[in-house]
Specification:
binds magnesium ion; Transferase(Phosphotransferase), domain 1; binds adenosine-5'-triphosphate; alpha+beta; single chain; Jelly Rolls; binds 2-acetamido-2-deoxy-beta-D-glucopyranose; rod-shaped; Phosphorylase Kinase, domain 1; 8-stranded antiparallel beta sheet; 15 helices
Length: about 675
Amino acid sequence: MLLLVLLLFCTRSLPVRSSSDQFVYNGFTGANLAVDDSSFVTSDGLLVLTNGTNRLKGHATYPSLLHFRNKSPNSSIHVLSSFSTTFVFAILSEYTDLSGYGIALFIAAAKNFSTTLSYEYMGLFNIESNGNASNHIFAVELDTIRNVNMGDIDSNHVGIDINGLKSVKAASAGYYDDKGNGVFRNLTMISGEVMQVWVDYDAKRAELNVTLAPAQVPKPKKPLLSHQVDLSTVITEWAYVGFSSSLGDMSSRHCILGWSFALNGSATPLSYTKLPKLPKARPSSHMVLSVVLPLAIVMFILTVVGAVFFLVRRRIKYAELQESWEDEFRPHRFSYKVLFHATNGFSDDKLLGAGGFGRVYKGTLPAHKLEIAVKKVSHDSRQGIKEFIAEITSIGRLEHKNLVRLLGYCRRKHELLLVYEYLSNGSLDKHLHNHEMDRTLVWDTRFHIIKGVSLGLSYLHDNCEKVVIHRDIKASNVLLDAEMNGRLGDFGLARLYDHGTDPLTTHVVGTIGYLAPELARTSKSTPLTDVFSFGMFLLEVACGRRPVLLDDTQDSHVCWLVDWVLEHWGKGDLIGSMDKRLGGNYDIDQASLVLKVGLLCSRPSPCSRPVMRQVVQYLEGSMPLPDMSPTSPNFGTLALLQSDGFEAYDMPFSVSSKTSCILESDCLSGGR
Ligand SMILES: Nc1ncnc2c1ncn2[C@@H]1O[C@H](COP(=O)(O)OP(=O)(O)OP(=O)(O)O)[C@@H](O)[C@H]1O
Ligand SMILES: *[C@@H]1O[C@H](CO)[C@@H](O)[C@H](O)[C@H]1NC(C)=O
Ligand SMILES: *[C@@H]1O[C@H](CO)[C@@H](O)[C@H](O)[C@H]1NC(C)=O
Ligand SMILES: *[C@@H]1O[C@H](CO)[C@@H](O)[C@H](O)[C@H]1NC(C)=O
Ligand SMILES: *[C@@H]1O[C@H](CO)[C@@H](O)[C@H](O)[C@H]1NC(C)=O
Ligand SMILES: *[C@@H]1O[C@H](CO)[C@@H](O)[C@H](O)[C@H]1NC(C)=O
Ligand SMILES: *[C@@H]1O[C@H](CO)[C@@H](O)[C@H](O)[C@H]1NC(C)=O
Ligand SMILES: *[C@@H]1O[C@H](CO)[C@@H](O)[C@H](O)[C@H]1NC(C)=O
Ligand SMILES: [Mg+2]
């Protein structure tokens, strides 16, 4: 009993020494290999050294020590025996081009590899022990990673290692094909193909041969590696043989299918028919399912999402609003995208100016190299838009040299875009009230502009079958082309914003003074309200003053230009109200004509105003002005307003309109 315990104790603590000098395993079932870490033998008998990922290391060792060195008959020297071994392996990798690190066949003095490192040390060494002659480790490595630290030649090589992983000799994996007259053929060790390795050492000649070949191919005559090396200082008298393997970050399985070893003779050949089957070599299908497919799906989804996002963004960015009633105006329609690109995306450096309705941008239509001005009008209510578009497009069809041509429009949600031809000299008010540049317009130009604008407005009122009311005549809506012709722009826009109902909008403030008094009461624009505005415009151009001025010298009292001119006239000095900047350089008759027509047009009572056809005739001199005097009751002074200031804006008009007995509509029919 004691003996048995002692025996058990001995077998457990002392290394078992083999009496045999050879073994052969066609599959490892029952081989009783000492495995550690991640190594194991499957039920089929397949030795899996490393299985998985993340820097695993695994070892499988023949359980007993082998007697590598025997006492020489005539001396006490232990002479190293020759040995021969062969094994069949396969590396099953997740990817066809990445794996690692590899497998090593080793002969080592000890089998405790707990202090060794995985990956580049192949589970055989660590940073300190690598290369130390006291290791007493000989190995043949099948290295699938090119590790510069170890002087590796490539990522697919076979090397002879002595006490360290810097191979004393290495060669790219391959074999000399006996069938092909010894031509060298490359092998890829991580291909998942089954391959066989032979390691033969002739102790007498100190010659080591390492041979590699694909499965079933007989051992090639010419070894892959043949190296003169004396292993007698490396291999200890008693030593272990086994396999070591390590993984990098790639998931792969290092498998050994069979192994044969012999001291003092050639290893028994392995029998392929008896070798265990490899687990379904799924790499390709596995990869398709687990890597390529999800990747493809993700890519597909990303592409679709990206495309949808792009399209939706594009849709939103360039979204327009179009309704069925617009079909007839389609020829006048611009796409938002075209306008967006024409104006550099409505960039600030393309901004020409901003008015009460919105901002105006300069643009260029690349197709025609045509310069345009795009007015962005914010417009929320659908009310009136149909009539407005019908009107402006009909005006757009009218070609008159004193009208700014409307090229078309575009509609978006909350936004209306009007495309006009670009007029290089900008709006008249900038020239008129530009004190900084001091480049006042000379009288001839002013008179030319006045006559042009009167023709344009008269054309709107009288030309076609339909009366067109401008609604917003003022100096800033008179644009000047390259030849300084005055051209009326912005016709009809005011229709969208009913002045009468909401007289103190920002827009109206800019327009104050131009609005005929009866508008405050009736909210109805007529050709005669246009005439009133035109009269104000005439006075503004002649006097170089805005129709309404806050006079700082008189306690911020509102000063009406009409009254100011009338005042001068009353003093017998009508010409004295002319723009001082002209320096008297004007035709006195023309000047007084313009001032008088201006006063005539801006009479409070609509009935007493002339129609535009008459105005044109007065200005052309083809019809004499009616007799007028500054005290004529028809001029109905606006001076009343001065005492009440701004708040009473609409008051005097109601007062003065009491005097007008005839309705505006009657005036209209009577006047024409
Ligand atoms: N067709 C155009 N060509 C060149 N410049 C233009 C054109 N249309 C407008 N502008 C410029 O853009 C500025 C702003 O015009 P906008 O019509 O918006 O304002 P406004 O005339 O002052 O006021 P309102 O909104 O009452 O018309 C103008 O003062 C003018 O300088
Ligand atoms: C080894 O890998 C196989 C297949 O990937 C798996 O089924 C098995 O559980 C793994 N074994 C270990 C010990 O990781
Ligand atoms: C005895 O050993 C020596 C070397 O140590 C060797 O040269 C000699 O041949 C050996 N003799 C016999 C009989 O083996
Ligand atoms: C291996 O060696 C380490 C120390 O180097 C020791 O702690 C461990 O117990 C040994 N393992 C075996 C199985 O002998
Ligand atoms: C080699 O290892 C031995 C024992 O582990 C140690 O004493 C020696 O210093 C090492 N030599 C070198 C060069 O590291
Ligand atoms: C074999 O491999 C070597 C080095 O990897 C390469 O230069 C050579 O072109 C390969 N030959 C064939 C036939 O693939
Ligand atoms: C090594 O290979 C060569 C042929 O290239 C052969 O002559 C020699 O005997 C081989 N040596 C061993 C130990 O197998
Ligand atoms: C191997 O052969 C040598 C002589 O060549 C002999 O000394 C030795 O005992 C043999 N070893 C075994 C294990 O047979
Ligand atoms: Mg304008």
